[in-house]
Amino acid sequence: MTPAPHRSHTDDLLSFIAASPSPYHVVASAAQRLEKAGFRELRGTDDWTGATGGLFVSRAGALIAWYVPEDAPAHTPFRIVGTHTDSPNLRIKPAPDTGTSGWRQIGVEIYGGVPLNTWLDRDLGISGRLALRGPDGVPRSRLVQIDEPLLRVPQLAIHLDRSVNEGVALDRQRHIAPIWALGDPREGELLRRVAAAAGEDPADVLGWDLMLHDIQPPGYLGVDREFVVASRLDNQVSVHAGVTALVDAATGATQPGFIPVLAAFDHEEVGSGSETGAQSPLLERILSRSVSARGGSDEDWSRALAGAFCVSADMAHAVHPNYSERHDPDHRPLPNSGPTVKVNVNQRYATDSTGIAMFTAAAERAGAPWQPFVSNNAMPCGTSIGPLTAARLGVTTVDVGVPGLSMHSARELCGVRDPGYLAAILTTIMVGD
């Protein structure tokens, strides 16, 4: 691929990230792009009989989308790209209004593996969703995104903590509450501010899933602008690549030889154990129902799975120049050298030789490079949704990811070329050329 398509892809990625500060916004952004490409949303209470073309189901912070070519037999195998919509961050507590020593503060809970020092002294906004009173007693949902510098977690001055540069950990329990005003706590103040931003009456708010996000916009870095820097690269790089690939597979000149599927789960950063996580039956039930809706039998469902292939796409580690001893000495991925194929013999990743062969063959057809990744034996290995999906569906799965630095930080980094490389490979896999 030439530089121009890569920059075009990453420009679009940055727009996607800026519009998606929470998992619920990720789903909305993805759904908007799918609908523009002709996909239509199905609800669980709808009749799916005979449904073909581009289809998707959204549930809170998760989205499952697929494309059924006309006249595709019910036993047509799936080509699945698995990703996740959530990122480590600070989430607002149910009773948020707090404070001390003359400061008004907001109570937050730590979500996922957050390097807390990266959230210090950053300008923070609020995003997520509100659950509101609806007609006939049925609650309705409303997204909210406040890209204003409302809050800040102030770092203690070095004069008051001379050990700050000696690796002393931030106290996770007492000192994480962001400040946002002077004075005593005012009960209901946060709710009133957020409801006003959403154009809703605070009295109609029955609950919320709200979180903080860094309001600094995503952008480019480096002497040649060769790096992407943004919040939530893990894992919106992969969600965006998956949406791009699915749309390209559905609208390209060549009809896919498979049923291409995008599975964007929530709560991966805390174990995937929820109704919208990879451990849930969500994907299995939707794919099974899609087979039945096209007149398929249990045998057709089994055949579709037997020929299926899954790519679990999540961010990976590039070798860190200041901590190279933390990496495997023979596996040192770098940005702009292609996505990594992640291997762990203890099944923290689901990759095996069959999966490697299928992914690398697609990379060759796409004209995209790739790199192997293995963790240092002396360091614990992360994991992904790959093993969960492989175990639940029993399909061949390969774990891959764009290599980057500062994973889980409030602001991460990757190469400008790699997101486009990943999307090109995923498109090739979905189409089946």
TrEMBL record:
MF-aspect GO terms: aminopeptidase activity
Names of the cofactor(s): Zn(2+)
Amino acids binding Zn(2+): 84, 159, 408
EC number: 3.4.11.-
Keywords tagged on the record: Aminopeptidase, Hydrolase, Metal-binding, Metalloprotease, Protease, Zinc
Family matches, as CDD domains: M18_DAP
Enzyme class name: hydrolase
Highest taxon listed in the record's lineage: Bacteria
Keyword Mitochondrion appears in the UniProt entry: no
Claim: Lipid metabolism is one of the keywords in the record: no
Any single Pfam family the record assigns to this protein: Peptidase_M18
Family: Belongs to the peptidase M18 family.
Protein name (Swiss-Prot/TrEMBL): Probable M18 family aminopeptidase 2
Organism: Streptomyces rubiginosohelvolus
